[in-house]
Structure formats: structure tokens, C-alpha cells
Write a structure and sequence with these properties.
Blueprint: H1 2-16, E1 35-40, E2 45-49, H2 59-72
Antiparallel strand pairs: 1-2
Length: 75
């Protein structure tokens, strides 16, 4: 069970490498350090995001992009 969770979390991290920042599309959200953690709860994957600054206008777009990418990957 722990190995399956680690595999899913690892897969999620890899998917997040492809989620580009909407304001700097040459960099992924991982490149920018926005993704703080990925936790597999078994029935859901939790991604902890921290915007680059308080009140970042792209936060909702980034959140939606992360969810879309994980859903598309079957996670």
C-alpha cells in the first residue's frame, strides 16, 4: 500500500513538471517552487501550492491547471 502511494505521488510530481506557469510559460510550477508537497490520501491526491507572492492573480488559473493535468493523467 505504501509503495502504491509513493508511486502515485511520484507520478503526480512528474505530471506537475508539465504544468506551465501562466505568467512565465517557459517554466513549470515545479521550476518556480510553487508546488510544496504532493500527498496521496488513497482516494485523492493533495497538492500543496504556495503562490510566488500573496495575492498572485494567477493562483486560480494555476490551481485549475494542476487539477486538469492530474485528472488527465488519471490521478
Amino acid at each position: 500500500m505504501a509503495q502504491a502511494a509513493a508511486d502515485r505521488a511520484g507520478a503526480a510530481w512528474r505530471v506537475l513538471d508539465g504544468v506551465l506557469d501562466p505568467e512565465v510559460p517557459a517554466l513549470s510550477v515545479r521550476d518556480l517552487g510553487i508546488v510544496r508537497d504532493v500527498v496521496d490520501h488513497g482516494d485523492a491526491i493533495e497538492v500543496v501550492l504556495t503562490p510566488t507572492y500573496s495575492g498572485c492573480p494567477a493562483t486560480e488559473v494555476i490551481e485549475a491547471s494542476v487539477v486538469d493535468a492530474l485528472v488527465a493523467a488519471g490521478l
